[in-house]
Amino acid sequence: MKRQRLACLALGLGCTLFLSACESQGDGRIAVGKVDTATLLQEDPDYQSMSVEYLRDQTDMRKEYVDQMKSAGEDAQKTKALQEKYAKASQEFDAKWKKKTEEFLKTRHDSIQAIAGDIAKRKKIDIVLIDSKMYPTVEWGGVDMTKDMALAMSDGSQHQPESTSTPAGDEG
Q: d(Cα 49, Cα 129) in Å, to the nearest integer?
């Protein structure tokens, strides 16, 4: 376990990781897994629905503003008032969606952490690194758990797909 903590400290500089309750491989090696959270979110139907809702609401707000600007015509006073009103509405809209997105992501990341821990225990993985194309993790051959995570998140189970391997390279 002391060796695991050292590895966590070394790996923890600049990446997010989860430490499972598993023991090391027995020969002193530490098994590392990785999860690409960007892939999981892109494939998440709830995240996709939220993105569509955001774009729809934003489009509606802009359309309303354009229509009001057209009706204001050449009236500089009305135009300025509408611009100020739109700027305020945009700030409120952005704040609302920022909060909604942060709450959604926190819930999803909590779920990802719990599922990753379960899969790591089953596959005897000691450390799970969160890898993302947006925030790449230094990688040197960790077991990619993203497929396991996607399956577990899609059906609410932790069934292990046949196609992914364990740290020892065995199909699992």
A: 27
Rounded distance between C-alpha atoms, residue 68 and residue 82, angstroms = 7
Spatial distance between the Cα atoms of 150 and 38, rounded to a whole number of angstroms: 11
**Percent of the chain as helix, strand, coil, to the nearest 5:** 60, 10, 30
Block residue for tokens 């821990």: 117
DSSP 159: P
Q: Residue 36: what are its φ and ψ, rounded to 5°?
A: -90, 100
Strand partners, 127: 19, 32
The 10s digit of each residue's pLDDT in 45-74 is 999 999 999 999 999 999 999 999 999 899
d(CA 159, CA 150): 10
Tell me, yes or no, if the pTM score tops 0.85.
no
pLDDT of residue 57: 97
Q: How far is CA 53 from CA 61, 75, 94, 153, in A?
A: 12, 33, 13, 22
Structure tokens at 46: 């709830």
Do the bridges between strand 127-131 and strand 143-144 make them parallel or antiparallel, or are there none, so unpaired?
unpaired
